[in-house]
Amino acid sequence: MITKPKGTKDIYGVEAKKWQYVSKVIDEVMEKYNYDFIRTPVFESSELFHRGVGQTTDIVTKETYDFIDRGGRNMTLRPEGTAGVVRCYIENKMYGNDNKPTKLYYNMPMYRYERPQAGRLRELTQFGMEILGTDDPMSDAEIISLAVNIYKVLGLKQIKVNINSLGDETSRNNYRNALIEYFKPHINELCEDCHERLEKNPLRIIDCKVDKDKDIMKMAPKTIDYLNDESRKRFEKVKEYLEVMGIDYVVDPTVVRGLDYYNHTVFEIEAKVQGFGSQNVIGGGGRYNYMVEQLGGPKTAAIGFASGFDRLMLALEKENIDILVNDSVDLFLLYVSEDEKKYAAYLSNDLRMHGFIVETDYLNRSLKAQFKQADRLNSKFTIVLNDNDLKNNEVKIKNNNTKEEEMVSLDALIYFLDENLNEESNYDANYKKDGDI
Ligand code: HAM
Fold first, then answer.
1. Which residues contact 315 (CB under 8 A, 6 or more apart)?
2. Which of 259, 272, 302, 385 could be bridged to 335 by S-S, CB 3.0 to 4.6 A?
């Protein structure tokens, strides 16, 4: 038997319906914040990620899926969404639009060759958003609030927002030098990877998963102490806007993020529900004011966020959030003769185009077996199509809940269904239940 590759998932059945619901909520909330949907290629030239994400990140040094295509080009399956969005922004000269800033969101699979475990996949899905073309601290707060509000609308309660600032280039460099000075005499206490990080990117040592609990880490210099006045003031502004928006947060100096491109605000959102496991960061992001320029565009300030879809689904499950998925059909059409079957083909087609969920039989089942199938699908109504009734231009429709039967004229069938199925959809019910943000 051929099985799925390690670190990938098949999403089907009820789980697929839940995914669709969550995607729909994401679309709805993004629409309210006026973000446009964007889809970029699954593979890009490898250089994009080397230059965009950074040569010293774990993602680029150890985790990319690289291949040479049949034309001899070095390609990489995208490990994250930001670099591709920025490439698209530059290539399509979006920076030339009068409509500024550019607000974009995505929901797409990413590929990282990581050691799979619960919440850590090789094919992972992320939804994320980016604002390009503004350095206003209010946009930092907006990105954080948008992330939090999506989780809130979905019903998540046990989340914690950790924010930090890496400051501008000068602050970041001062901090970098302080880290080198601090860790150099203790290098032998750190893991092999951190030896390399010390010169190339000492910030990575701070979020090293291997060394994180060692004593030496506790006393390490903190970003906040190396912010220059301007960066400090900017960070204060971000916090003020978060407070105005009613977003709870904690300042955590250990949040430095695993990608090289950040400056100023960085943040991560953790799932705090018990039993979630070690991969509890459900989303992270930050400001990246230099990437557009580094990739060949004009100087453009930007900030963004991405959330692991798989981890979000896990958090919803652990918090016992009931996602109501539609597991019923409106109407099942039963038939016996070939003429009745033809009518079933006509009527199902017509009613579906009028917005009803209609099913019929495709396996030439007996009437008894068709009734069983209608029950399996939780059909709200059934009609046994009958040549005689059809000649009289009517059908007998049964409400499977009340068991009541009624003759309805074919001309009035749509009206009848509309009248009797006008309960709100499961999606609306869910949205209203948790949508009070
Ligand atoms: P990231 O922190 O690498 O940031 O990934 C964002 C989120 O994706 C993580 O917080 C986690 O929930 C999820 N994630 C990452 N790796 C895996 C994995 N192997 N399996 C399951 N979930 C995973 C970024 O990707 C940045 N592009 C975010 C960003 C957007 N920054 C600015 N704009």
1. 151, 156, 158, 159, 271, 273, 276, 282
2. 385
pLDDT along the chain (437 residues), means of 10: 98 96 97 98 96 80 93 97 98 96 98 94 98 98 98 96 96 92 91 87 85 86 95 98 98 86 95 90 97 96 98 96 93 97 98 97 97 98 97 97 97 96 57 50
Pair 268, 354 in one domain: no
The torsion angle over the Cα atoms of residues 133, 137, 140 and 146, rounded to 10 degrees, is -100
Q: Does the C-beta of 162 come closer than 6 Å to ligand 1?
A: no
Residue nearest to atom 32 of ligand 1 (CA): 304
Sign of CA dihedral 425, 428, 431, 432: negative
Regarding the beta carbon of 307 and ligand 1, being less than 6 Å apart is answered: yes
Q: Is 258 in the pocket of ligand 1 (CB under 6 A)?
A: yes
Q: Mark which of 318, 348, 379 sits at the end of a domain.
A: 318
> 310 CB less than 6 Å from ligand 1?
yes
The answer to whether 293 and 278 are in contact (CB under 8 A) is no
pTM assigned to the model: 0.92
Q: In angstroms, what is the span from residue 343 Cα to ligand 1's centroid?
A: 52
Ligand 1 mutation target, pool 113, 259, 270, 292, most atoms within 8 A of CB: 259
Same domain assignment for residues 391 and 278: no
Please write the tens of the pLDDT for every residue from 277-330.
888 999 999 999 999 999 999 999 999 999 999 999 999 999 999 998 989 999
- Find the 281 Cα to ligand 1 centroid distance in Å: 9
Buried b or exposed e, range 324-345, using 16+ CB within 10 angstroms: ebeeebbbbbbbeeeebbebbe
Instruction: Give the tokens for residue 196.
Output: 């390399």
Give the helix, strand, coil percentages of the chain, each rounded to 5.
45, 20, 35
- Check which CATH number belongs to the domain holding 145 and give it: 3.30.930.10
Q: Which of 318, 352, 378 is the last residue of a domain?
A: 318
- Diameter of the chain by CA atoms? 94
Over residues 178-195, the pLDDT tens digits come to 999 999 999 888 998 898
Does 199 reside within a domain? no
- In short, whether 286's Cβ falls inside 6 Å of ligand 1 is yes
How far is it, in rounded angstroms, from Cα 34 to Cα 36?
7
Q: Does residue 251 lie within any of the structural domains? A: yes
Query: Which residue range(s) make up the domain with 124?
Result: 13-168+228-318
Task: Say yes or no: CB of residue 52 within 6 Å of ligand 1.
Answer: no
